[in-house]
Structures are given as structure tokens and as C-alpha cells.
Write a structure and sequence with these properties.
Elements lengths: L2 E12 L2 E13 L15 H8 L7 E6 L2 E2 L5 H11 E4 L11 H11 L4 H14 L15 H13 L5 E4 L6
Parallel strand pairs: 5-6
Antiparallel strand pairs: 1-2, 1-3, 3-4
């Protein structure tokens, strides 16, 4: 099992009030499985994605990602998990505007301290996989919305993550 959530609760403090967002969520996923989290606005989809992506922690319940109890992890351990086990494709892409497509895809490999030559080879391969081998030197403002999304996908897959999270994946 790549991820397992049991009895997940999440609440936020708003002034003196506690606002519940997730209540008793159970969810599991096997490696290789594709899952869509759907629901109306305000139903907690983003909160759940933030917990699964180790960007936030649940208030109650257990969450195991690839056998690791996430609630027991330090911030540094969660950073390592995000870097090495999770790929993110954000709705707004979060590309660096002054960097080329290649540099944007290389970024997580740089954080992972992958040597420059290997970093370039892996980034070029990821861009080729998403059909952008001919756009490696283009900056985000020189790309269409769909091409920017594909650069974001290449960046998300370049580290071969165990889990790929996409927020609004059909947006572009």
C-alpha cells in the first residue's frame, strides 16, 4: 500500500472557533493506482491533498505514506519525503519565470544534489516524455498554457516519485 489514511480529522483555528474541514476520512491507495478526489467547492479536497502531499498534518488520525507514519515525521523528514517520494503539479504550475523549461525541470534534482550532468540528462528525458524536447530553452512566457503544464509535469516526474499529485490536472 503506497498510502493509507485512517480516521483523518483536520480542523483550523479561526479566532476562538475551531472549524472542522475533514471528518473521519479513511482512504487507501495501492502503488500504480490512479485516483481522482472530487467534490464540491469547500468540501476539503485541497486540505486532503495538502495532507497527502505532506504540506500539512492532520489534527487526528493516522497517515502512512510508503510505510512511514507521517505524523511522527519532523519538518526536515517531511521535506525529504516531498523531495524524494512525491511529485506535485500545481494548478498555477509554479514555474520560475526567468528560467528555461530545462532549468525549471532540473530544480528538484538540484535540491536533491544530483550531479549536474545527470541532472541535465534526467531533465531532458522528462521534457522529452511530455513532448517538449524542442522547447528546453524556452522561458514560461514563451510557452502556451498547455506547454507550461507539461513543464510542470516533467518537473514533477523527474525524481521518479512514488506518488504524483495533480491539482486541477485538466485546467490546461
Amino acid at each position: 500500500m503506497i498510502l493509507e489514511l485512517k480516521g483523518i480529522y483536520k480542523e483550523y483555528q479561526q479566532g476562538k472557533m475551531k472549524v472542522p474541514v475533514l471528518k473521519n476520512v479513511d482512504f487507501s491507495m495501492e502503488e500504480g493506482e490512479y485516483v481522482a478526489i472530487m467534490g464540491p467547492s469547500g468540501s476539503g479536497k485541497t486540505t486532503l491533498m495538502n495532507i497527502i502531499g505532506c504540506l500539512d498534518k492532520q489534527t487526528e488520525g493516522t497517515f502512512f505514506l510508503d510505510g512511514v507514519d507521517i505524523k511522527a515525521c519532523s519538518e526536515n523528514e517531511m521535506s525529504d519525503i516531498r523531495l524524494n517520494k512525491i511529485g506535485f503539479v500545481f494548478q498555477s504550475f509554479h514555474l520560475l519565470p526567468k528560467q528555461s523549461a530545462l532549468a525549471n525541470v532540473e530544480m528538484p534534482l538540484n535540491y536533491a544534489r544530483v550531479p549536474k550532468k545527470e541532472r541535465r540528462e534526467r531533465a531532458l528525458k522528462a521534457l522529452d516524455r511530455v513532448g517538449l524536447a524542442d522547447r528546453v530553452d524556452f522561458k514560461p512566457n514563451q510557452l502556451s498554457g498547455g506547454q507550461m503544464q507539461r513543464v510542470a509535469i516533467a518537473r514533477a516526474i523527474v525524481n521518479n516519485p512514488k506518488l504524483l499529485l495533480a491539482d486541477e490536472p485538466t485546467g490546461a
